[in-house]
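Internal tracking record. Fields below are filled automatically when a chain is submitted to the structure queue. Please do not edit lines marked as system-generated. If the sequence contains nonstandard residues, flag them in the REMARKS field before resubmitting.
Queue: standard
Priority: normal
Entity type: single polypeptide chain
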Amino acid sequence: MITIGITGGVGCGKSSVLDYIAKNYNCIIVIADDIGNKVKEPGQACFDKLVDLMGKDVLGYDGYIDKKKMAEKIFADHVLLEKVNDIIHPAVTEYILNLKAEEMKKGEKDYFFIEAALLIECGYRAYTDEMWYIYASEDVRRKRLRDSRGYSDKKIDSIIGTQLSEENFKKGCDRMIDNSGNLKETYRQIDRLMKSAGESIGK
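SYSTEM-GENERATED OUTPUT FOLLOWS
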């Protein structure tokens, strides 16, 4: 089973790439953000540690950590944000690696994809055969975020400002897909890379 990491800046179209891969290849796709939400649930790895760190007022009426309350706390306190990340990121990595081990035992899938905005920063190169950077020009990304999510230019600036530069994404990855244009061209690039990945690892 080949393990491939997928990363890229906000608005680059990672979801479109993964949707195509999911429909056309025998694979498992794991989204790190989804796992990050899961490990924060009651009874999961991070719940008690996060409540102890942030206080019980971070909880909603249902007993789950309230995302909005949590965001207000951590984005107002850089030190607290780092402490939260130090709890969540290792737990997410462990969860994903356990899933990977389970899938390898089953031996049913050809590919295991991990999608994360912080794939490079969190050291996933150590756990993948290849790292792919999904690229789109900044103008395209900004238009997508305004049109699809209704983001203001100020919000887009703040998000882009916290993410890796194009240069660092390229340095941290083995291959790049240019997703600035039409999807048919993106799909052709994906097919070429999938073929190359399979050949390089003997699939």
